[in-house]
Amino acid sequence: MYKLLYKIDYVLQRFFTSLVFTIPVIKYLKKIYFYLRFKSVHIEVTNNVVITNFDKFNENTDIKFMGPCVFSRNIEVDYSGGIIFGKNVTISNNVIIQTHKHEYDNLSLFENRTSSSPLIIGDEVWVCNNVIITNTVTNIGKGAIIAAGSVVTKNVAPNSIVAGVPAKHLKYRKLSGYES
C-alpha cells in the first residue's frame, strides 16, 4: 500500500509543478496542493519539484518548514530521515537532497537495505544550482551558502561559504550592518 501512495504522491507533485501550473490563475491549485500535502503555507515551488520520502518510513520520516522556503526548478528532496527547513531558505535549480543511503557492506546488493539520517537546514541558507547534499550531512548552519556544483558530504558551519566536490569551507560571510 505504501508504494502505491508514494507513487501517487510523486506523480501529483510532478503534475502540479509542471509548466501548466505557472499560469497565474492555475498556480493557486499548486499552492493549495502543497499546503494540503505539507500543512504549511511557507512553501513556494516552481517547476519539476518533488519533495517526498524516497525510502521506507521510519521514526524520523518527517518534514517541517519553520518559515518561507523557495524551491526553484528540477529539485528532488528526500525526507526519509527527516528534514527541518529554517526560515527564508532558498533552494536553486537542479538540487538533490538525500537523507537515506543504500547499505552494501556484508550484504547482497539485492537485499535493498537502507539507513537514514536527519537533516536540519538553518535560517537564511542559500543552496545554489546543481548541488547534491548527501545523507552524511546532518546540519547546514544558519546563513550558509553552498556554491553551485558542490557535493556536500559534511556539515556546514553557520555563515560559511562552501564549494567543490566534495564541498570544502572557503570563507565566512561578512555580515556587517545586517543581522537576521
Question: Can you tell me about this structure?
Answer:
It is built from two helices and 18 strands. The chain has a single domain, classed as 3 Solenoid (UDP N-Acetylglucosamine Acyltransferase, domain 1). The protein is globular and about 45 Å long. The relative contact order is 0.11. The strands form four sheets. The protein has a seven-stranded mixed beta sheet. It has a five-stranded parallel beta sheet with strand order 2-5-8-13-16. Helices cover 15% and strands 29% of the residues. The chain has 180 residues and is of the alpha/beta class.
CATH topology, which one? UDP N-Acetylglucosamine Acyltransferase, domain 1
Structural domains: how many: 1
Named CATH architecture = 3 Solenoid
**SSE order, one letter for each helix or strand:** HHEEEEEEEEEEEEEEEEEE
Query: CA-to-CA gap between the ends?
Result: 44 Å
Radius of gyration: 17 Å
Number of helices: 2
Widest β-sheet, arrangement of strands: 1-4-7-12-15-17-18
- Name the CATH class: Mainly Beta
Task: Determine the structural class based on helices, strands and strand pairing.
Answer: alpha/beta
> Can you identify the CATH superfamily?
Hexapeptide repeat proteins
* Mean pLDDT reading: 86
Tell me the β content: 25-35%
C-alpha geometry: globular
Number of extended strands: 18
The unreliable regions are none
Taking the sheet with the most strands, its summary is: 7 strands, mixed
